[in-house]
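Build the 3D complex.
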Amino acid sequence: MKFTEMLEARWRNQNTLLCVGLDPNRSRFPEELADSPNAIYDFCCGIVDATADLVCAFKPQIAYFASEGAEDALKRIIEYIHANHPGIPVILDAKRGDIGSTCEHYAREAFERFKADCVTLSPYMGEDTITPYLKYEEKGIFLLCRTSNKSGDELQMLDVGGERLFERVARLTAEKWNRTGELGLVVGATYPDELAAVRRVAPDIPLLVPGVGAQGGDIHAAVTAGMDTRGAGMVINSGRAILYASKGADWREAARQAAEATRDAINAARGA
Ligand SMILES: O=c1ccn([C@@H]2O[C@H](COP(=O)(O)O)[C@@H](O)[C@H]2O)c(=O)[nH]1
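Done.
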């Protein structure tokens, strides 16, 4: 099944645009996992089970696993999601971009080794760095466009001949690069005006929107600016605000409550 079909099905059937980010940080784990050798796996699967019916996607960030030498746990967590919650797409947040011959290996890593349904990429090196990923025709790709961090504007807001660089990325994605129909854009909830600008250039492209929760992005402003004409089209990520809602024995329930509140705030803003 294509990535966009999986997303569409979750948006429609589960009525949710929420994505839970799986960014496991040992120093913030619940006390009961402190001595567990499988803490990363157990924590992520606990969060997955507690929130699965509330999400349209899960987004593990590879750095949290690689820094711990826990790529095997990442692989098993993705297998766990596919086996126990079929139909929920997994977006591997890897942001890998390089020359084409190297990207063939990054694409294999994401789609064959980890079996992700979608990956995040930097478009900074241009189209031939995206091409190797497009060979996996059913897989999704979210290209960094207007990131949620403060310093993103040092480059992304530059005027490149009548439009800003992030708008050029959005235009190229919508009009030239999207040969599989599976491309999307990363646009931070922290910049609703730019979200609206991206939506004008790319009316039908899915947007991965980090920046709500711990980064303080305004859900109502982001949803109003970024939803498509059907009131969908967004994958709104929240990580820390959900993952670390409690360190106590109630960590699963607390994560679920935080996820539910976020999903409901998103739905209220889209009038769903
Ligand atoms: O512009 C971007 C692109 C990616 N991210 C990633 O999203 C999550 C955000 O986590 P929170 O805990 O909800 O802040 C994290 O994995 C980032 O690497 C982003 O924040 N901004």
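The pocket of LLZGTKA7 is lined by residues 21, 23, 61, 93, 147-149, 186, 188, 210-211, 213-215, 237-240 (CB under 6 Å).
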